[in-house]
Specification:
The chain is built from 4 helices and 2 strands, in the order E-E-H-H-H-H. It is mainly alpha-helical and about 80 residues long. The chain starts with 13 loop residues before the first strand and ends with a helix.
């Protein structure tokens, strides 16, 4: 994890004028949620599949979006597929 001396994330390097996200490793549960996203599951379905609350799913989604520097389910899956390949 890249943290500045003041406890905040360091700015990502810029490529082509846009900031590149700093890739923090996903937790095992975040990887499970991401897999469910790739299967086009809705929050309710993910929660049932992983036996957690919908709020827990939303928490994991926010973490994934933050770590990947994206703002949508589709972008999260696209980002993961391009970086994992």
């Amino acid at each position: 994890m890249n943290i500045s001396s003041q406890g905040q994330r360091a700015e990502a390097p810029r490529m082509g004028g846009a900031a590149m996200p700093i890739m923090e490793p996903l937790t095992p549960r975040e990887r499970e949620v991401l897999h469910c996203l790739s299967q086009r599951m809705m929050d309710r379905e993910i929660a049932a599949s992983l036996q957690v609350s919908i709020n827990t799913v939303k928490h994991h989604l926010r973490n994934i979006y933050s770590k990947f520097g994206v703002g949508s389910r589709r972008r999260a899956v696209e980002f993961y597929r391009t970086t994992a390949a």
